Automatic annotation (TrEMBL):
It comes from Mycena sanguinolenta. It comes from the Eukaryota. GO terms for cellular component: membrane; nucleus. Pfam families: Cohesin_load, Tetraspanin. It is a multi-pass membrane protein. It is found in: Membrane; Nucleus. This is Tetraspanin Tsp2. The keyword Calcium does not apply.
Length: 1025
């Protein structure tokens, strides 16, 4: 198709605009041939290039499509599946100490360099274009590509070129009072949404670059850190001036057409344009048609502004740090924007909508990860754990756990375990995070994980040396085993630290400070260590990373502690102030458990202050410092107890089982001389199977003997065994539900209305509650039965066009059928409870009413949502993706149509539908049918809601007033005593006595007559009776 475009266009000049569009569509349809199709041919270069491709607009589209394809191929490469390879323990051990610059990484750098050169050659015609807006667009594409590929050495020059092309001119960063000079320039960005959107992109990329590079903007502070936070507050940094301009542009709403819609409200017409849908119009000139390009969706840009603001502001000291404020507000904005309807172009596909939703989900995951890091640095460990659980659930729900988020979340777990004093778990998580980062090619993430592991090993080896020297370690660690961390020797640890320091120099300002700290800790020369710590303090101050700055100040103070006490006290005071601010409550005076901030660091600083005060013999300060250290020590101990809570939980389960076993074993000595027989059934004979015929247990075959004989006498009512002689209470009340009480009602007791316990008497009539239940359940039964019958007629194709409903609304039909069936089952249970006066059935009936109500509302909501929100778009998607050939054929046969718009558009060939068919398209008829059907559907469903609610209210209010208490004391008929049952029980009891005491010999006839004559006449008559 691509080779035949030029001859057709030459024969038909009116088709000269179409070859470039057909080429791009072919590339989308065949991604494996996209590189061949989109590559500009030699005819697209030179003086006649515009005429060869069909005009200046097609010329720009051709090169933009090729540049976009190259950029996407570099950012999201398709990695072929590799076979698993065997890795020996030797190779695993060697991989731990492998340098960052491996041959594989060098190969990747060479490949990236080739791809970047190809991208620049593709952008060259656009950079030299005669239209300024096209050149500006090419500058932004180049800047985005360099930052996305990590080519940080070239980002600064590209950013300057892009800012100068768009007209951005910022004052020098050291002049705080010239920030207002950029205000007149903001008028340029309001000329068109295109300029505003590109300026927003440039500002976001510039903020990321300056926050990453941390270029020095002020004189560096001394080792004592006296500049502090206040020393740099009045200086306008490159990040701050760009953030200010970014906020003004986002609030103005020029980039998304919001300002235009606001100004048009006076005329009664609101048209936000394509900008609100993520489509930018690139104006060229008056004689040329504009370009239309897809850009970052305005919703994504707005949420991205919060993320960039939170990343750029690293200071966490204070009650309400701005970084945390931006993170929390950004999460609320993402949640709020997700609930709103997404504005997309009418020609947008489902993939485009899913892309925007996935971008919002990624931004939310990044915000939550940043919030976890903030909570860890501020010692808010409960919030960190909750947010970690939430971000894991969020990433798994949106299929984002792989890629860059897997090692990032693992690294957060490692940092949390490190802060909580769980070294074994922290080291494992650090190693896993480094491995995952190397798999996805994230060099920065791998270096951060390995730096954390090295810092952990350094700390654990220092604790092992202190423990060997007999010094007390505070605070203690959970399950501390320093021996488990001695697998890495001093030389190997030093080599790892040097490699990491070299790798950190190629990363941002914060990682450069980390590298300097590692070098200063691992070096054996004091002067070199001081110089490394001084460099680290400069980098941390420029980055405004006061969390890292507090640690560096503590390390520097340790070197000056015995040589320069005054400087050490200044640095310790600054360190304590920063550590206390990393946990200040939101409101002043609000007491919190973790309000002390970084308790271990403050405790260390307090111990050093105490040493200095004792050296200077400051008795007035020693007592105050000891009291403060006692409070900090309690906080550190509480933190250590919190560390052990996770271990104690798992151990507690095992201890509970062992305690139970020991308790059982301890009771064996209580009956040492008693031989316990195995349990036997009641009244069972102790003889063998041959004596079963003489067993006293009565035979139940074919008799009406009560099952009560199988119960031991202790299960009967204890009234006969009461020592006080009190009789058992009759009637209802609380005592009627007590275990073992008699269940004999008094006369005219309300609780037994309708139950005749006498041989004669008049039964009570129905009360008003039962009438209410009968009336409500009758109405409920009628509409449930009607709904089931109607659903069956639809399923059995009784109605006209019923097959259309089954094909196009299968989900709604199934849900409605389930709801109707559940309603009918609930009504049947209700009739069982009403007729039998059964409270148990009525309770189940009331509970099932709630389930039926939920099942009823679901199809109503689905049909209403489908009817009210873009029904035409949903039908378009359904016809193209969901129905399939069989479903489209069924609808075509029922509605007597062919294809969607015409027989040439997504038609299923049949006897009546073919290419030359005269039947109309199905869209109009199907849309009208769905409109009427869905409207009647949700009205009918929601019309049944009041009836269901009425039945629920009636069941809740009236079911407990049906007074026959089934299962609340009335003995079932099979267990009621009868004369035969009493005879069987007495025979069993007599046989048991005979077996125990022996059989008494039968009296002779003379003795029997003599005993009978001695009895009174009443006893003789009773005997004969």
């Amino acid at each position: 198709m691509h080779s035949s475009q030029a001859p057709i266009a030459q024969r038909h000049p009116s088709l000269a605009f179409y070859p470039s569009y057909i080429t791009r569509l072919s590339a989308r349809a065949a991604p494996h041939r996209a590189r061949q199709l989109l590559r500009p041919s030699p005819s697209t270069f030179g003086s006649s290039a515009v005429a060869n491709v069909g005009g200046i607009t097609a010329y720009y589209y051709t090169h933009l499509a090729w540049a976009d394809h190259l950029l996407q191929a570099m950012l999201y490469p398709v990695v072929p599946p590799s076979k698993p390879t065997f890795r020996s323990s030797l190779s695993t051990k060697q991989s731990k100490t492998t340098a960052v610059g491996t041959p594989r990484s060098r190969e990747k750098d060479a490949s990236a360099q080739r791809d970047l050169a190809a991208l620049r050659s593709a952008l060259a015609p656009l950079l030299s274009a005669s239209h300024t807006n096209v050149t500006l667009l090419a500058r932004v594409i180049e800047l985005r590509a360099l930052i996305a590929l990590g080519r940080w050495a070239e980002v600064g020059a590209a950013l300057e070129r892009a800012e100068s092309a768009v007209g951005l001119a910022f004052p020098p960063p050291t002049a705080p009072d010239t920030a207002a000079g950029a205000k007149p320039e903001t008028e340029l960005y309001t000329t068109s949404p295109f300029h505003a959107a590109l300026v927003v992109h440039i500002l976001v990329l510039g903020i990321v670059w300056f926050a990453y590079s941390a270029i020095p903007t002020s004189p560096q502070p001394g080792p004592e850190g006296g500049a502090g936070k206040e020393g740099t507050a009045s200086v306008s940094t490159p990040v701050s001036v760009r953030l200010t301009l970014l906020y003004s542009l986002l609030d103005a709403g020029v980039y998304n057409g919001k300002c235009r819609a606001t100004s048009a409200r006076a005329d009664g017409q609101i048209d936000m344009g394509l900008e609100s849908e993520g489509v930018l119009e690139v104006p060229l000139d008056a004689s040329t048609l504009p370009l239309y390009i897809y850009s970052t969706h305005p919703r994504v840009l707005y949420a991205l502004g919060y993320l960039v603001s939170a990343v750029a502001r690293r200071d966490l000291v204070g009650r309400k740090p701005k970084r945390k404020t931006f993170l929390l507000e950004g999460l609320s904005v993402v949640d709020r924007e997700t609930q709103r309807e997404l504005r997309v172009p009418r020609w947008a596909s489902a993939g485009g909508v899913q892309t925007v939703e996935k971008q919002m989900a990624k931004i939310k995951a990044d915000l939550m990860c940043e919030l976890v890091a903030v909570s860890i640095m501020r010692s808010e460990f409960d919030d960190a754990e909750r947010t970690l659980d939430a971000v894991i659930a969020h990433t798994r729900n949106h299929s984002l756990f792989g890629g860059s988020l897997a090692h990032r979340i693992t690294l957060l777990h490692a940092q949390l375990a490190h802060a909580l004093g769980r070294p074994a778990r922290a080291r494992t998580c650090y190693r896993v995070a480094a491995h995952l980062a190397e798999e996805v090619g994230d060099a920065g993430g791998a270096v951060a994980a390995r730096a954390g592991e090295v810092a952990l090993l350094v700390g654990m080896r220092a604790r092992a040396r202190a423990k060997a020297a007999g010094r007390a370690l505070e605070p203690p660690l959970a399950g501390e085993t320093e021996a488990a961390f001695t697998d890495c020797g001093e030389s190997e640890l030093a080599q790892m630290g040097k490699e990491l320091a070299v790798a950190c120099r190629g990363l941002g300002g914060a990682m450069r400070a980390v590298g300097e700290v590692l070098e200063g800790v691992l070096t054996t020369e004091i002067l070199k260590a001081k110089q490394h710590f001084k460099n680290a303090l400069n980098y941390a101050t420029e980055c405004q990373d006061n969390h890292l700055r507090a640690l560096i100040l503590a390390l520097i103070a340790a070197h000056y502690l015995h040589t320069a006490g005054d400087q050490a006290q200044k640095m310790l005071a600054t360190c304590e102030q920063l550590a206390a601010g990393l946990g200040a409550p939101a409101k002043k005076g609000k007491e919190q458990v973790n309000a002390v901030g970084n308790a271990p660091l403050r405790l260390w600083v307090g111990e050093r202050f105490l040493e200095l005060h004792k050296r200077d013999k400051r008795d007035d300060l020693i007592q105050k410092r000891e009291e403060a250290n006692r409070v900090l020590r309690d906080a550190a101990v509480a933190l250590s107890r919190r560390r052990e809570s996770a271990v104690a939980t798992s151990v507690g389960v095992t201890m509970t089982a062992s305690d139970a076993a020991s308790t059982t074993a301890s009771t064996r000595h209580m009956l040492p001389h008693h031989s316990l027989e195995p349990p036997r059934p009641p009244f069972a004979s102790s003889s063998d199977d041959t004596s079963r015929s003489s067993s006293p247990v009565p035979s139940l075959n074919g008799s009406n003997i009560s099952l009560q004989i199988n119960y031991v006498p202790s299960k009967f009512s204890p009234g006969v065994r009461q020592r006080k002689g009190l009789t058992t209470k009759f009637g209802g009340g609380v005592d009627a539900f007590r275990a073992g009480e008699a269940r004999i009602p008094k006369a005219n007791e309300q609780d037994y209305d309708g139950v005749d316990v006498r041989a004669t008497g008049r039964k009570a009539k129905w009360n008003k509650f039962k009438w209410v239940l009968v009336f409500s359940n009758t109405i409920y039964t009628l509409f449930a039965l009607g709904a089931v019958i109607f659903m069956l007629t639809v399923w059995f194709d009784v109605w006209k066009h019923a097959d259309v409903l089954r094909a196009g609304n299968h989900t709604e039909l199934v849900l409605t059928t389930v709801a109707a069936s559940m309603a009918l089952l609930t009504a049947v249970i209700g009739w069982a409870g009403i007729v039998l006066n059964n409270r148990g059935f009525l309770a189940v009936y009331t509970f099932f009413l709630w389930i039926a109500f939920a099942l009823l509302v679901i199809p109503g909501y689905i049909t209403y949502k489908k009817f009210a929100f873009n029904l035409e778009g949903k039908i378009n998607k359904q016809w193209s993706e969901t129905l399939g050939a069989e479903g489209r054929l069924r609808i075509q046969n029922q509605l007597e149509c062919c294809g969607y718009f015409s027989p040439f558009v997504e038609a299923t060939i049949s006897a009546t539908c073919y290419s030359r068919s005269v039947l109309p398209g199905c869209k109009q008829g199907y849309l009208e049918y769905e409109t009427v059907l869905l409207h009647r559907w949700f009205i009918a469903v929601f019309g049944c809601v009041p009836l269901t609610i009425g039945a629920i209210v009636a069941g809740l209010l009236c079911s407990n007033h049906v007074t026959y208490r089934f299962g609340k004391g009335m003995m079932p008929k099979a267990y009621r005593l009868s004369p035969e049952s009493i005879t069987a029980i007495m025979d069993s009891y007599a046989s048991k006595l005979a077996e125990q005491y022996g059989y008494e010999p039968s009296p002779s006839p003379d003795e029997s007559e003599r005993l009978t004559s001695a009895l009174p006449s009443s006893a003789v008559s009773l005997k004969h009776r």
